[in-house]
Amino acid sequence: MIGIIGGSGVYRAEMLEDCKKEEIATPYGRVSLTVGSFDGKKIAFIARHGEKHSVPPHMVNYRAHIKAFEILGVERVIATAAVGSLRDDYVPGNIVVPDQFIDFTKKREYTFYDREAVHISMADPFCDEMRAISFKVLKDFEHKEKGTYVCIEGPRFSTRAESRMFKSFGDIIGMTLVPECQLARELGMCYLCLAMVTDYDVYGEKPVSNVDVKRVMAENIERIQRVIEQMLKELPEGRSCRCSRALEEAR
To answer: Per the domain annotation, does 250 fall within a domain?
Structure first.
């Protein structure tokens, strides 16, 4: 089974057939999700912020989401996210496939292993196999094959001073990648982030606006859906990456 996490603007998996709503009980809370199929593959879809975008990034129950995926048998996760650009050449509308992140969050539940010494490796945070497949799919779209995602706590946007500091560290900035990707790694799942650039962060002259973010997402939502569909078609049945063995090397 493949898991899809829809970020800002992606509240339904339009491509799914035979859809049904399910509620999964986890040790961290209950999770409402949609289960269906596409191209002969079983798919589980979670709207990260809820179907009406009622959950802010710092309140998302990341552990419950990823645990629910594990209960359903998910092995691969494709996650979308709306991000700001920290570089002039990463323009609104670009899809970025980040290869690194820097974590500036501070109040989240970061691990499933609070009572056990587990040190998961995040040297390369994203699945190499899925990244390679995404490059094949994205060849006809404006995209960037690398990028360091600066993850901040939110829900507020950065000050100009903070943005200039973050610009010296990374390429894009958002609020939801961490701890989502590392929780997936702890459970041996492959994880890929498709980050949609919606605006320039405020290192420049124009302050970021929710109006701008929503407009760019609305203009590009169909594109993200097409990329996900192609990704689902291209993913092979078996996995040849190291993601499934992450926990063996962490204890």
So the answer is: no
How many domains does the chain contain in total?
1
DSSP string, 35-85: EEEETTEEEEEEETTTTTT-S-GGG--HHHHHHHHHHHT--EEEEEEEEEE
Is residue 23 situated within a structural domain?
A: yes
Residue 116 lies in a domain: yes
Tokens of 70: 């594990």
As beta bridge partners, residue 6 has 47
Q: Read off the pLDDT of residues 81-127 as tens digits, 9 standing for 90 and up.
A: 999 999 999 999 999 999 999 999 999 999 999 999 899 999 999 99
251 domain-assigned: no
Longest Cα separation, the chain: 49
- Which amino acids are annotated catalytic? 199, 201
